[in-house]
Amino acid sequence: MLHLLPAHLREIPVIQYIAKETWPLTFGKILSPQQIEYMLDMMYSTDAITRQMTELNHKYIIAYSDELPAGYASYELNYKNEPIVKLHKIYVLPTMQGKSIGKALMDEVCKIGKVSAQQFISLNVNRDNNAIQFYERVGFIKVGEEDIDIGNGFFMNDAIMQRKL
């Protein structure tokens, strides 16, 4: 049985576990091992996630399948003071993919966005990430591209995708 629950600071180790299990497979063919390690530390250290949750207004949802962590999503309402839900992260453990967990997480974030009077949901995704096909299947369209300097000589080369709620 699938349960989606809001995450709190005490669940940071669960989020970190899922990230460390998914990132090498998700990005192993697109990013160097050095960039993956750098980004995991930058985005998923305990301090980074604590700051996201307590200062940046990021909300996390963890998906549990039969009481075991299966994936998570992170989002922010009223992104840049606009009626937009920014989907910052959505990942499902490789062993749990293909079981509609990603869709359940996406549906939950969209539902929260609608209830919160948001008009769109927006996300960034690496331009070479196979997840683009998933986003298109659930109604997203590409609205732009951006290259973000994240330090240490690394860039995030992203497509910007959006969907009306």
UniProtKB/TrEMBL annotation:
Residues annotated as domain N-acetyltransferase: 2-165
Entries under PROSITE patterns matching the protein: GNAT
Top-level lineage group: Bacteria
Phylogenetic placement of the source organism: Bacteria, Pseudomonadati, Bacteroidota, Chitinophagia, Chitinophagales
One Pfam family here: Acetyltransf_10
Molecular function per GO: acyltransferase activity, transferring groups other than amino-acyl groups
Protein name as it appears in the record: GNAT family N-acetyltransferase
Keyword entries, A-Z: Transferase
